[in-house]
Design goal:
By secondary structure, this protein is an alpha/beta fold. It contains eleven helices and nine strands. It has a seven-stranded mixed sheet with strand order 3-2-1-4-7-5-8. Strands 6-9 form a two-stranded parallel sheet. The chain binds guanosine-5'-diphosphate (GDP) and magnesium ion (MG).
Length: 389
């Protein structure tokens, strides 16, 4: 969904609070947010409720009915028909928001409202584009989570950071603020639970500040994190990975790019050698007593496959995994690999027999030459890149 900048009010802050079954928390968090807002600002809080069966939405309506009018501050609620996920609830709030600075936070007191002024200050005063309340920088921590939940969070963070090349220490934070402008004309899908991750992947060249805070597990109500959320998270990382940033984001000189890709190709080749070796060992003694040639055939097939996957995703940064295309690329890759093996064999024979070079040296030379040929052929024909780019 495209984010546009309609009806934006300069200087206004919009705070988005997604709720699902938060009747025990919502009124108190609304009060606490109001108390903690910096003075002299214009702000609105938008609750996005997914028709909570526990009546959270009705409770907010009642509360608003009896609320005295305040100057410079309003509270609204958006009712959605059904539980449609945290990410999309936040997105709905963002679309409705009037502010040019947007704050997103949970309603269960895990995100202390006392941090809101610091987030706003990072954006308004210090001109950062995104301010992330962070559990994983100095001064930040988590209280009340089991070891398992902590581990799951750390693991997911690691996957997101490494897989998507993100530097932010807590890219899975649900507590953050940003300038609405940075989303202008971006297509935000809200595929995952954690919309911040998507924002970090899709916005480029923005300044990010992390503000430490202590995440406190909720005391009332229950967590909505379930297996589906976890599966959705990994799906969203995969989707964001395919969205991808350009692989060569800094380097523009074509010779350097060519060499760095060649280096990756060689590294992948070396990893294939290790895979091949380990598998051959495993099948001739480790897990079964196979005839060594059979074991080696398995080793070759597996290592060609891992080489293919690594070269596709890493060396050439190809994020298009349509089945037909991938299979055809795999076919070409296998063909060029076999051709490379023949060239290598022929060259070793020629060097040892005719040039009288010692076998180990001949083998190294032949591998280098065959691998280079392989690299060039795959670059041009399998992954359809220009020869030098
Ligand atoms: N509108 C809406 N809010 C949700 C949904 N899932 C979770 N929330 C809210 O998002 C916030 C974080 O959810 P929570 O269950 O506390 O996640 P946890 O802190 O990771 O365990 C809370 O304010 C929830 O009420 C959803 O599907 N729709
Ligand atoms: Mg929570």
């Amino acid at each position: 969904m495209l984010i546009r900048n309609k009806d934006k009010i300069n200087g206004q802050i919009s705070i988005i609070i997604p709720t699902y079954n938060e009747s025990q928390n919502i009124i108190n968090i609304l009060k606490s947010i109001k108390e903690n807002l910096p003075k002299n600002i214009i702000a609105q809080t938008i609750v996005v409720d997914d028709n909570s069966p526990d009546g959270t939405g009705k409770l907010v309506e009642e509360y608003l009915k009896n609320l005295k009018k305040m100057t410079g501050y309003t509270i609204e609620i958006i009712h959605r028909k059904a539980k449609d996920g945290l990410g999309s609830a936040i997105l709905k709030g963002i679309q409705q928001a009037k502010g040019d600075t947007i704050v997103v936070m949970d309603s269960d007191f895990s995100h202390p409202p006392q941090i809101i002024p610091k987030l706003i200050e990072s954006i308004k005063k210090y001109q950062f584009d995104i301010a992330v309340a962070s559990r994983y920088i100095n001064g930040g921590k988590i209280q009340g989570w089991s070891l398992k939940r902590k581990f799951m969070s750390k693991f997911a963070t690691l996957i997101a950071k490494k897989g998507l090349g993100i530097d932010t220490k807590d890219p899975m934070s649900g507590f953050f603020a940003f300038k609405r402008n940075i989303l202008k004309e971006l297509n935000i899908d809200a595929i995952g639970y954690k919309i911040l991750l998507e924002i970090l992947v899709k916005t480029k060249g923005v300044n990010i500040k992390e503000v430490p805070y202590t995440f406190q597990d909720r005391e009332l109500g229950s967590s909505k994190l379930g297996i589906k959320t976890i599966v959705d998270f990994y799906k969203s990382v995969w989707k964001l990975y395919r969205y991808g940033k350009p692989l060569e984001k800094q380097e523009k000189r074509s010779s350097v790019k060519f060499l760095s890709k060649a280096a990756r190709f060689y590294t992948v080749g070396a990893s294939g050698f290790v895979v091949n070796y380990v598998i051959s060992l495993l099948f001739t003694g480790g897990i079964s007593e196979m005839w060594y040639l059979h074991a080696n055939v398995i080793g070759i097939i597996v290592s060609i496959t891992t080489n293919f996957i690594l070269n596709k995703t890493w060396t050439f940064g190809d994020r298009d995994f349509k089945l037909k295309k991938t299979i055809s690329q795999y076919g070409k890759f296998v063909m060029f690999s076999s051709l490379g093996a023949l060239v290598q064999l022929g060259m070793v024979y020629f060097l040892v027999d005719n040039v009288e070079i010692v076998y180990p040296l001949a083998l190294i030379l032949a591998v280098m030459v065959a691998a280079f040929g392989n690299f060039v052929l795959n670059k041009k024909w399998t992954f359809k890149e220009k020869l030098v780019n």
